């Protein structure tokens, strides 16, 4: 990967293609700029990109070549298809300029496996899907292989995956509290205080919202497939409040239909025996106990107040209560090198959690880390890629199967996040949310609802993020309930 490029673009509309160009370029270089007025910049490599789009073909040439290096015949001129063809020409050229084959080709979206499902539904033949991904989307062979493997694992885990949206929904509950805020976090996670007055009003509204949402679900005859308590860290609640929330949910559902209930207990410092007993009592199948790193210096640097030793202790404590334990790790945390990644994997080798989720560090705009980027030196793109490759190899060698994958914008080295699982421990909710195969109703702070209609259109509704606004949510909740009434 090289840095400091300025592309002088002509022949396409900035309004339509600027974002596409930027997203595609991120696969090769960080911070490239695009100018549409031939303005050359000092101290960077200026490269012209001349497009020609007419009724018959899309052509693209640059300074390095004196003829069209790439040219695609346009067969179908709808806007979406044209955009894919233009993207394909860009990727073909960038692959040559940077002498690097972008693993995801023209795919810039966060859900490449969803495309695999869509194509499979259309053609019902895996080989055809593979060829389309290779030829039309320029996805590389290793990426196609991982998509195929994830696709097959998902179908095996949820055989009725394409019928899930008929009579059932899944539920997400957002609990917006954490012991401290991690430096990279942009989730609704408010530092919990002793006798926090926000807690009572939050729980009041949460219970009200649960009542209102389930009134509609019952009216519409919808059962619940999976429930996910996230946030924040739901185990920041006291054992008593946690029990109240679970009790409330169970009072509304037909537990015979429920396939899975997950509770994020990501911060080891929030876990104790009392809470684990509550989780077991309500048949919670899966929790996360997230180390992120097994290096105490890193944990301190990113604002987590638990230690490596506490993570290990709480993991072993949880084993007696919960069937599936997930552990998250982040590749590319500030100051970390390959040695830290190997150390994390060595610890996983001792603990053998049922799920491991490997995230690449993401620089979300509103996070403390992004706003203070110089304070957090991170690995270069190449180093980060090497680290991710080490995790992939380790997972394979240790019988962890990839079962979901997603990409993010502004992620280190444009890498992907991958959820791995031991056989028999696959988390259904993660598949449902990633592949958008079922309506998810979000309840609580920052909870996002995705209401999928019968003709596969998605209506997104976002709840207020902070507990104070959420407490006054009563006034806007009708909007969500009306969408549910109309489309479920
Ligand atoms: S534990 Fe998770 S939700 Fe809480 S602050 Fe850290 S990243 Fe955010």
Write the layout of secondary structure elements.
Elements: E1 5-10, H1 14-25, E2 33-35, E3 45-53, E4 57-62, E5 70-73, H2 79-97, H3 112-123, H4 126-135, H5 141-157, E6 168-175, E7 177-178, E8 190-191, H6 197-219, E9 223-231, H7 239-250, E10 260-264, H8 273-281, E11 286-288, H9 296-301, H10 308-319, E12 324-331, H11 338-351, E13 355-360, H12 368-371, H13 381-397, E14 401-407, E15 416-421, H14 428-435, E16 440-444, E17 448-452, E18 458-462, H15 467-471, H16 477-487
Parallel strand pairs: 1-2, 1-3, 6-9, 6-16, 7-8, 9-10, 10-11, 11-12, 12-13
Antiparallel strand pairs: 3-4, 4-5, 13-15, 14-15, 17-18
The structure holds iron/sulfur cluster.
Iron/sulfur cluster (SF4) binds next to loops.
Short description:
The chain has helices spanning 14-25, 79-97, 112-123, 126-135, 141-157, 197-219, 239-250, 273-281, 296-301, 308-319, 338-351, 368-371, 381-397, 428-435, 467-471, 477-487, and strands at residues 5-10, 33-35, 45-53, 57-62, 70-73, 168-175, 177-178, 190-191, 223-231, 260-264, 286-288, 324-331, 355-360, 401-407, 416-421, 440-444, 448-452, 458-462.
Classification by helices and strands: alpha/beta
Give, in spatial order, the strands making up the sheet with the most strands.
14-15-13-12-11-10-9-6-16
What helical percentage do the residues reach?
25-40%
> Nearest-angstrom radius of gyration?
24 Å
- Give the averaged pLDDT, no decimals: 91
Number of strand elements: 18
Sheet of most strands: 9 strands, mixed
Number of spatially distinct domains: 2
Q: Report the CATH topology name of the largest domain.
A: pyruvate-formate lyase- activating enzyme
List all distinct small molecules, including ions and cofactors, that are bound in this structure: iron/sulfur cluster
Cα-to-Cα separation, first versus last residue: 47 Å
Q: CATH H level of the largest domain: which superfamily?
A: tm_1862 like domain
As residue ranges, the low-confidence spans are none
Task: Please count the helical segments.
Answer: 16
């Amino acid at each position: 990967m090289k840095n400091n490029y300025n592309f002088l673009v002509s022949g396409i509309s900035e309004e339509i293609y600027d974002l596409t160009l930027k997203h595609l370029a991120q696969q090769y270089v960080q911070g490239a700029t695009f100018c549409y007025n031939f303005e050359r910049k000092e101290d960077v490599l200026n490269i012209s990109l001349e497009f020609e789009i007419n009724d018959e073909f899309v052509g693209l040439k640059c300074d390095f070549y004196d003829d069209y290096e790439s040219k695609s015949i346009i067969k179908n001129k709808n806007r979406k298809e044209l955009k894919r063809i233009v993207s394909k020409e860009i990727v073909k050229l960038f692959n040559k300029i940077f002498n690097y084959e972008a693993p995801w080709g023209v795919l810039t979206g966060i859900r490449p496996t969803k495309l695999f499902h869509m194509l499979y539904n259309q053609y019902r033949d895996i080989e055809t899907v593979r060829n389309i991904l290779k030829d039309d989307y320029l996805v590389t062979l290793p990426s196609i292989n991982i998509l195929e493997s994830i696709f097959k694992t998902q179908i095996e885990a949820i055989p009725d995956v394409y019928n899930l949206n008929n009579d059932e929904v899944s539920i997400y509950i957002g609990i917006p509290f954490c012991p401290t805020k991690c430096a990279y976090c942009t989730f609704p996670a408010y530092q919990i205080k002793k006798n926090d007055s926000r807690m009572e009003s939050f729980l009041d509204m949460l219970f009200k919202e649960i009542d209102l949402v389930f009134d509609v679900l019952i009216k519409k005859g919808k059962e619940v497939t999976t429930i996910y308590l996230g946030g924040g860290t739901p185990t920041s609640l006291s054992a008593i409040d946690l029990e109240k929330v679970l009790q409330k949910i169970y009072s509304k559902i037909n537990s015979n239909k429920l396939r899975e209930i997950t509770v994020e207990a990501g911060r080891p410092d929030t876990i104790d025996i009392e809470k684990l007993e509550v989780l077991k009592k309500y048949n919670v199948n899966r929790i996360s106990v997230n180390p992120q790193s097994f290096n105490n210096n890193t944990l301190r640097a990113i604002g987590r107040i638990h230690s490596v030793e506490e993570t290990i202790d709480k993991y072993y404590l949880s084993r007696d209560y919960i069937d599936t334990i997930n552990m998250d790790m982040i590749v590319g945390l500030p100051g970390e090198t390959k040695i830290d990644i190997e150390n994390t994997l060595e610890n996983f080798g001792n603990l053998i959690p049922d799920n491991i989720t490997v995230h690449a560090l993401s620089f979300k705009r509103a996070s403390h880390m992004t706003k203070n980027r110089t304070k957090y030196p991170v690995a270069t793109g190449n180093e980060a890629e090497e680290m991710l490759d080490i995790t992939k190899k380790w997972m394979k060698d240790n019988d962890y199967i990839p079962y979901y994958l997603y990409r993010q914008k502004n992620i280190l080295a444009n890498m992907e996040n991958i959820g791995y699982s031991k056989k028999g421990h696959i988390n259904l909710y993660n598949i449902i949310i990633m592949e958008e195969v079922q309506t998810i109703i979000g309840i609580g702070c920052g909870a996002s609802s995705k209401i999928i209609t019968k003709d596969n259109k998605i209506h997104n509704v976002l709840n207020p993020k902070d507990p104070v606004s959420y407490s006054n949510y009563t006034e806007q909740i009708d909007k969500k309930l009306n969408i549910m009434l109309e489309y479920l």
